[in-house]
Amino acid sequence: MIEDWLERKQICICAGSGGVGKTTASAAIALGMAARGKKVAVLTIDPAKRLANALGLRELGNEERRVDAGVDGELWAMMLDAKRTFDELIEWHAPDERTRDAVLSNRIYQELSNALAGSQEYMAMEKLYELSQEGRYDLLVLDTPPTRNALDFLDAPRKLSEFIDSRSLQLLMAPGRLGLKVLGRGTNVAFSVMKRATGVDLLQDLGEFFRSFGDMTEGFRERAGRVNELLGARSSAFVLVTSPRREAIDEGIYFHRRLKDSGLPFAGVIANRVQQAGGATTRATLANLCGEELGTKVYDSYEGTRRLAERDQANLDLLRRRLGRTPLIEVPHLPDDVHDLAGLRLMDEFLFG
Amino acid sequence: MVVTGKGGVGKTTVAAALGLLAARQGRRTVVCEVAQQERLAGLFGARDVGHGEVELAPGLFSVSVQPEQAMHEWLRHQLKSGALAGLLGHSRLFGYLTAAAPGVTELVTVGKVWDLAQVERRTGGSPFDLVIMDAPATGHALALLRAPRTYASVARVGPIARQAGSIDAFLRDSSATGVLSVALPEEMPVNETVDLERRLAGDLELEVDQVVANGVLPARFTAPDVRRLRSLDGQGTEAAQAAVTSALVEHRRAARQQEQLERLRAEVRAPVTTLPYLFEPEPRRRELELLSDRLEEAL
After folding, report:
1. DSSP state of B137
2. Do the bridges between strand B54-57 and strand B60-64 make them parallel or antiparallel, or are there none, so unpaired?
């Protein structure tokens, strides 16, 4: 199935809320496509230790590494370091060394570049763009950062370019009060009120931060625009990874609608860890088979499992109704956690059908 | 009390169960959702918890912290004028600046939660005995807890520095603020819990007070049970066979969980308590009561 979704695609973006198995699904997709002869790189954020080990990511920097997976194609993996990517970006965009050093050594940049709103999300896109430009891979699989909301990362490039476009930033970058005059009296008042609320010192530091950023705005804006273009291109595919739990499903429905509204290419849904169960049986049947006491235990356990399976199917039905003809792949709740190549190969059967 | 943990481990459920327990013990309690999820009301079958306080059960309130409103409240207090706050709050300059300035959202959010815990609240209203913050997943929770300190140091002087300093001091006072980390007995959530404790201690000199391992499967089957079940392979009706296989899978999962629990206990300093797996994917009031009973026994 996944193979059809990704036919003629160069980018696969796996999105979904936290804890649904996005990282594992991304790795399984990448491994599966590599096994089918492609040269694939998976960009991941925070894999489980054993999965990271399996992917050879134990002591990596911000570079891809070849994974020895015994496949026909090639599997490469990298763990994204948002701070490092941001630093690299500054180095790349800075017109001269002085600007570069001014930003990198700015107190606000240092203290906050990790917490910068949406920075991890944006940096993931940025790295994706960089690798896609280099064109060394047939397919790039991106495991998106664990956001509160599956959509945060979609907004990151737009937010950044909007902010850079804003006159407010230009105002803060303009030295002295000249900029204020240009923008008119309303802003002037706002500026002085703001000083009262925040304290002058902080405002000046922030101004300095944005000012040193200012020399790079053109480059950033252009880049953010191109990242947006790349996401919307027909060579990209968004895959939603979800659990069959209600809150993840609700978010998935919303996510799907947002993607459609934004005209972004949606490939399909992977429902992960779906509880499986067979048909109903009775306490008496099981007591006959296993004896009275054990039969009751087996019955209780099985009934619980069946309840979960029913609920999962009801939730998935809701998802199917809302998503119309969007393809959906179910991956059963496997007996063991998936955290090595063997586990990923188990998932392969369900993902690639 | 800050409740955090990896995504999908049941933070909101545990926060709600803890809230029920505290309220039952006669403490006026509020649970604050800060990740714009608003799932709490659903658990209690109530509708719509907004930025205001809503009573979910006797003595148990809920607030969903909206950064914009928290910002407005803060400005109004800071400027001592609703009109000025409105002017500033609506100015595009301010909007852009706060949207882009790193950590502002985190600062006003944690500021609102802090305010709820004060005897003299800026926003008026009766004080709470216990404020439970249903915090976002580990990484964001750390950013949230770090924001006041960062601003206290970056701003140096002025109203933000003062305020951020008080919030930071409150968060780091272990007699005032506690951290509860929720985990599942699985590889990744255990790693993240271990990592959280290390990073809290390193970056913020904060301790995790309690770890709650959620969703622990019952130790239903004994070793002889399992041997017997394995010997039944291929016998009985198709459904009975499925039941036997399912029982063996449950047993296997439970055993894996115990391994992870052992690892959790060995690797974190904080005490670890467990909550049972609910064979009920959408917990409601009854399940919450059950969990809060278990917490009461354990804590």
Report:
1. -
2. antiparallel
Chain A contact for B82 (CB, 8 A cutoff): no
- Does the structure show a pLDDT above 50 at A181? no
A254 shares contact with chain B (CB less than 8 Å): no
Question: Could you tell me whether strands B60-64 and B29-33 are parallel, antiparallel, or unpaired per DSSP bridges?
Answer: parallel
Per-residue pLDDT tens over the stretch B8-67: 888 999 999 999 999 999 999 999 998 666 778 778 877 666 677 889 999 999 998 988
Give the Cα separation of A253 and A320 in Å (integer). 9
Measured between CA atoms, how close is A136 to chain B, in angstroms?
31
Other C-beta atoms closer than 10 Å to the C-beta of A7 total 9
Residues of B in contact with A288 (CB under 8 A): 236
Q: What is the ipTM of this complex?
A: 0.85
Closest CA relative to residue A248, chosen from A224, A269, A231: A269
Q: Which of B221, B242, B247 sits opposite A279 (nearest CB)?
A: B242
Which residue in chain A has the smallest CA separation from B38? Answer: A247
Residue in B159, B187, B188 nearest the CB of A197: B159
> Rounded to an integer, what distance in angstroms lies between the CA atom of residue A197 and that of residue A194?
5
What's the pTM? 0.85
Say how many C-beta atoms besides its own lie within 10 A of residue A299's C-beta: 21
